[in-house]
Write a structure and sequence with these properties.
mainly alpha; two-stranded antiparallel sheet; 4 helices; about 65% helix
């Protein structure tokens, strides 16, 4: 039995990751430039249904980008691990197309999360400076639906590929 090779990441994923990472870095850079102008106490936890917010120190503006970066790195790690053939108990090693499906799914999820969190960061900056919010309740729901669609379509595509490999 010959050893399977690592599945390369699709060029689309590398380009998408580069674009989204650039947008995230730009948002973080904008926040760093505006940090000195922020009030000492900023809204850190807002409700979508009311204008009431909890306030905290201005350093809290970096909490969301930190969480976004940690999620991005975790999903990037999983994306890289999905590229390698792994021996599964009582099951054959995933095929090249099945691993590519996993890579693509992790790629889309990690970039969607990073992009949404960057948008949320800019929303937090706007609110901290006393402007109207740019992130509306419906946009959060659309984001969650998008993540659900990406996740479920990755699962269904994986199941279809699994059936195709078996037949």
């Amino acid at each position: 039995m010959h050893k399977q090779q690592k599945t390369p990441t699709p060029r689309f994923c590398n380009q998408l990751t580069l674009i989204v990472t650039t947008i995230f870095i730009a948002g973080l850079t904008a926040t760093l430039f505006q940090y000195g102008k922020l009030p000492t106490s900023i809204p850190i936890l807002q409700s979508f249904t009311s204008n009431q917010a909890q306030f905290g120190p201005k350093i809290a503006i970096f909490y969301l980008p930190f969480v976004a970066l940690m999620l991005f790195l975790l999903l990037h790690y999983l994306e890289v691990k999905a590229a390698y053939p792994v021996q599964r108990k009582n099951k054959p090693v995933l095929s090249h197309v099945q691993r590519q499906n996993g890579i693509l799914t992790f790629c889309l999820i990690k970039n969607s999360i990073l992009l949404y969190f960057t948008y949320s960061l800019l929303n937090d900056l706007m609110i901290a400076f006393g402007h109207n919010r740019i992130l509306q309740q419906w946009q959060a729901y659309v984001f969650l639906v998008l993540l659900f669609i990406i996740f479920i379509s990755g699962i269904f595509r994986g199941l279809l590929l699994d059936k195709k490999v078996k037949s």
